[in-house]
Amino acid sequence: MTEAKIGIIGGSGLYQMEALQDIEEVQLETPFGSPSDAIIVGTLEGTQVAFLARHGRHHHLMPSELPFQANIHAMKQLGVEYLISASAVGSLKAEVKPLDMVVPDQFIDRTKNRVSTFFGDGIVAHIAFGDPVCPQLAQELATAVASLNLDQVTLHQGGTYVCMEGPAFSTKAESNLYRSWDATVIGMTNLPEAKLAREAEIAYATLALVTDYDCWHPDHDSVTVEMVIGNLRKNAINAQRVIQAVVKQLAQNPPASEAHSALQYAILTPLSQAPEQTKEKLHLLLKKYL
Fold first, then answer.
1. Which PROSITE patterns is this protein grouped with (predicted)?
2. Residue 219 assigned to a binding site
3. pLDDT above 70 for 258
4. Percent with pLDDT over 90 in the chain
5. Which pTM was predicted?
């Protein structure tokens, strides 16, 4: 099978990577169903990468409809060890302005209906998740952003991403609550991905692309759909430049990550006693521990 050590999940506005060459569409099935779309495997900066449009290339999936397990499992099937999530977000801080980029290091879960584990059905695992993104991969992202001097873009390294259920945006009361928690940005997708990537022993980090201020901002009512779409387009162009730079860095010097052994002490069920059907379903994740 085609393999790629670096995976990219593109969010709203980022449905393809223009610079990908020698591309191949890979249709994968997983024990958890089909991914959001075909995965596009190609070369970027001379390195094989796998790209997936999170919501589908025609943006037909709502955040609560995303097949998170299938998306991460498919990346694991392709041999992905480093997963970059590019995601549109709203800002919860005055200093984090539209077009800025944030590399968060924490998450707060406000989702209600998201499956965010591969385990169950007779096998119990509890991953360590105090640091929910890979610090080494996050640093690579921040270094790449800083190196590019992108027009109108300020880098914010660190910060908290609130993951809400959606699809409606926050009320003002909710938005101000999150601000009182000192959260930085708000989105609808990244926390289930981060949990599943950790269970799959894939290093994961988020490149959060600010499209607008959340509704707490006094000027929010002047934000138009056209402005947001314009920012999505600019963010997509900037994100592709950052991802190219990160891929180049990772290819030259892939960092060690604790995520790559996340299951070593996480599985509580003796695998010799676990149901064969569940072991078969999770074989890709468990095989080095069987």
1. PNP_MTAP_2
2. no
3. yes
4. 82
5. 0.95
**Are 13 and 48 within 8 A, CB to CB?**
no
Active site members: 212, 214
Residues 119, 125 contacting (CB under 8 angstroms): yes
**Helices vs strands, H then E, count in the chain:** 7, 11
SS3 154: coil
Is 213 a known ligand-binding residue? yes
Can you tell me the distance from the alpha carbon of 88 to that of 99, in angstroms, rounded to the nearest whole number? 10
List pLDDT tens digits, range 154-201. 999 999 999 999 998 899 999 999 999 999 999 999 999 999 999 999
Tokens 């694991």 correspond to 76
Q: Is 272 annotated as a binding residue?
A: no
Number of residues written out for the chain: 290
89 and 61 Cβ atoms separated by less than 8 Å: no
